[in-house]
Design goal:
Length: about 325
């Protein structure tokens, strides 16, 4: 299969931007759909990328945008539910894949790459994981001779600009005490560049058709170990208090009422299950997984250098 034009849903997000970077200046043309074009203008310098503003992701609009495409990549996911259409778990994780599949069939798209999540399961505790599993089932069932499907199930993703380790770095910089929920949660974080490679390498590879790949990094960490590591990179000493189950639940109930909902009870339920691959999908794709220790100092460590520079300016009276 030769792919010349790809339509990407969720292409303005963390993984989507890295996929666009991997495909920049190639023969492949990218159509990245967004609800707000001005907010995502940083993608416009990519010469083979077209940023298209759409009002919604219903089947009719998607069919129109998929016309002339050989492949579609769906990266859309909602970590915390909102009230508006498209911001609920069911809408983003189940109904959208249904619309995508129907639009692919109508527009004659022959290739679909879908982002699911490690831990997705029908009997999972969290609604996020349940609906991700339901969407994954919809996509897998659509695999056929006319629509080749590949599903990816990444662990928590890290890299420059992430909302995981970078968020902990912000908290550690500004608060002397950190109350950490589910500190014993075990994770195998995967580098965003490796996730992007997995998508790009699979586009035209017939060996990946109908397959599902779990994507993890090479090493297991507890959440507490990762937070301690970030503090070490920042050069700060903080009191980090690991919360038990009861207090983790209470914290989640409290924070989901905070504007912006930085943490929710559904996030807590997701964290009750270790995020570790049972199969090395990156190795199956011939990708050598990057280690946390090889990548994270490059972007978290810069914060320490910047803080030292700011301290020097203040000392010199140049603040």
């Amino acid at each position: 299969m030769r792919v010349e034009t790809i339509c990407v849903l969720g292409g303005t997000g963390f993984v989507g931007r890295h996929i666009a970077g991997h495909l920049a200046n190639t023969r492949v043309r990218l159509r990245v759909l967004t609800r707000n074009r001005e907010r995502n203008r940083q993608l416009l310098p990519i010469p083979n990328l077209q940023l298209i503003e759409v009002a919604g992701y219903d089947q009719e609009r998607l069919t129109e945008q998929f016309a002339g495409c050989q492949a579609v990549i769906n990266l859309v996911g909602v970590l915390n539910e909102g009230r508006g259409a498209g911001h609920r778990f069911e809408d983003a994780h189940v109904k959208l894949p249904e619309h995508v599949i129907a639009a692919c069939r109508t527009a004659g798209v022959g290739r679909l790459l879908h982002m699911s999540a490690l831990g997705a399961a029908p009997d999972a505790a969290s609604r996020y994981q349940q609906t991700k599993a339901a969407g994954e089932c919809v996509v897998k069932a659509a695999h056929s001779e006319n629509l080749a499907v590949t599903v990816f199930r990444p662990s928590v993703i890290f890299g420059p600009g992430d909302s995981f380790l970078s968020r902990f770095a912000q908290l550690l910089q500004f608060f002397p005490v950190l109350l950490l929920p589910t500190p014993r949660l075990r994770l195998k974080p995967v580098y965003v560049g490796d996730v992007a490679k997995a998508f790009v390498q699979s586009l035209e590879d017939e060996a990946t058709f109908g397959q599902c790949y779990e994507l993890c990094g090479p090493k297991v960490f507890t959440l507490r170990e990762l937070v301690d590591y970030v503090a070490t990179l920042l050069g700060v000493r903080r009191l980090i208090i690991g919360l038990n189950e009861a207090w983790s639940q209470r914290q989640a109930r409290l924070l989901e009422r905070v504007p912006g909902k930085p943490y929710s009870y559904d996030n807590y339920l997701s964290s009750k299950v270790d995020n570790i691959c049972s199969d090395d999908g990156l190795a199956r794709l011939g990708i050598h997984a990057a280690a946390v220790e090889a990548i994270v100092p490059g972007y978290i460590g810069r914060r320490r250098a910047q803080r030292r520079y700011d301290d020097f300016r203040r000392t010199a009276g140049r603040d």
